[in-house]
Structures are given as C-alpha cells and as structure tokens.
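Table S2 (continued). Query chain:
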Amino acid sequence: MANWQQFDRREQKILLAGGLIVALILIWWLLVKPLNAMVDNQQGVNVRLGSQLQEAHNLAAELKTLKATGSANIDSNSLMRLVSNSARSHSLAMSNFTPNSDNSVSLRFERAAFNNFVEWLNQMEGGHNAVVDNLSITPTGDSGVVKVSVRLRGNG
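Corresponding output:
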C-alpha cells in the first residue's frame, strides 16, 4: 500500500485503467475465446447430425417404398450366403449372425460405419429383395460409427 501512495492521483488512475484492460484481455483469452470455439464446434456437429438425420429419414421413406414393391423370393440358404458376402464387401464385420427357421436372419454389427451400413441395407432391399423385419441403430462414441441389430428375411 505504501508503494501505491507514492504515485499521484493521475498515475493511480492510469495504473487502474491499465490493470482493468489487462484483466479484460485475460478474461477474453482464457474464458470467452475458448467458449466461442466450443460453441462453433458444437454447431458444426449439430449440422452434421442434422444432415445424417435427414438422410436417415430419406432412406426410411425409400425403404418403405422398396418393401412395397419387392417381389423376388430368397430362400434361407441363399439369404445367409448373400448377407455374409455382401456385408463383407461393404466392410461390415458381423458380431452375431443367427439364421432363423422362418427364412430370416438376425444380425448384429457392434461397430459399423453408418454410410457403409446404409449402402449395404439399400443393396439388400433394392437389389436382392430382402425385407427388414426389425432394425435398431444406436450411435457409438465415434462419429459415423453405429451399433446395429437387424433382422432380414427373404421376400416371399
């Protein structure tokens, strides 16, 4: 406090103003700027997720249309071979594959690239006339990677 008293009133005001400016700059650099960066990043994530959601809605509508127009029959053995080969060709690794007695198969993919899975599912329904009986898609912690459970049956 004794050092403060050695300055005259005008110098004290200048030092207070300088200290206030330094404090404001520190608050900006340490608090406001990182928060703005986080908000911008989150907005980018929201835009990407919104476009993925729109794509999923479009694919669901297309899936509905494909279900209504499918006509070819697939037997149980060909369905198992078809599913296995086509999943591999789309770089999808099945963690569970269960053939069912009603000409269907239940599949689980623990870590599937969403786009690869959608392309594969489109091929299965559009190109091979398989029908999705049940589908569950759960996001993982990684962007673009999902956990999927699906039950497919041969159309017929």
